[in-house]
Amino acid sequence: MSQSLLPQAFLTNFYNRVRDEDITFFITAQPTRGHKRAKVINYAEFETDLLEEFAEDAGKENGENDEEGGKPGPTPEEIANRDALPDLDGQDDTTNILKYPRIRETFLQGKIATPYKIEFKKQLASDSTPVMIPIRLNVEHSGHKIIDFFTWNLNDHYLSPEQFATIYCQDLDFPVTSVIHSQIVSAIKEQLQEYSTLASMVMPDLHVVVNLTCNLDSKLYEDNFEWDMSDTSFTPEQFACIVVQDLGLTREFAPAISHALHETILRIKKDWLEGHISPDQVPNGAAFGYLSGIRLDVEALGAEWCPKVEVLSQWEIEKREIEKERNMRRLKRESAKVEDRVSRRRGKRRGDDLETTLRM
């Protein structure tokens, strides 16, 4: 008689699905590239015949061991399938939900879900205005790198970073007492402390041009639009939902676009606070009798103001990642030089010349 199946809601297979190489959330950490001079060269010379004799002797020993032991032992995959919770092959009803691959995989490779032992208050503070801060995680664990991003409400005190990291580790099947738990907590607290003042700052009537770039898996979304910094009625989350619906993108693009726009807004606030952006009106008068306007384009008919979605190859993705790392190092060097000269003079930048290009 086959073993009875557990309810599907008691099982989770999330920690296995995120370990897929096609998912950019959980990737293999690339080894650090060393210098050529650091490589140890062995100048010892060996005879080829001697190495061939060693290889032949090793092959004979392996053959004898296989004959003495009979059939080879079970593979790790066979052991995992043998020790699975249910016996799917022995089910009497073949027309049930187990015929679906995803559900079948959940029962085969899943584990019993751990309930979240966190008590939330029934009534939340509805009078507090949400202040969203973009959080980015980039931590390494057991030869793998976890890259994730989400937004955190600064005025929501019912979930602490420690509790969030505990739930995060449970979902990924990591021990709560591991080093990655402390890394997640410290990363969240550092970014909350860094951006809390900027996120809470109220901006004056200022319009800027945002060149937003966001990539997810092999798709690249790029858009160019104007954003009102003083308007709080239209949030980046609403903008992301409209873009996803209009372009027919997957739902994973909604938090990615909103997170990218939140980072751009915080960077604009920082530049404005440091005096790099002038709130004065930009003269946009046109010559030769043409109409004036920031979006008026007689030749290209406003093609640069349309959203674009491209499908990149693996080579193009790696190339963009390398260029992004170089740009980040260059921006750090330039920002360090600018900070040294801030006390002597302050530069002004126009609102339409603001560089807000984000992730490539």
How would you characterize this protein structure?
Its main location: nucleus. It is found in: Nucleus. Keywords: Nucleus, Transcription, Transcription regulation. With 360 residues, the chain is an alpha+beta fold. The protein has 4 domains: 8-28 and 78-114, no CATH class; 132-200, no CATH class; 207-312, no CATH class; 314-359. Helices cover 38% and strands 14% of the residues. The protein has a 3-stranded antiparallel beta sheet. It has a 3-stranded antiparallel beta sheet with strand order 6-7-8, with helices on one face. Helix 5 (161-171) packs across helix 6 and helix 7 crosses helix 8. It is globular, with a radius of gyration of 28 Å. The two termini are 55 Å apart. Residues 350-360 have low confidence and may be disordered.
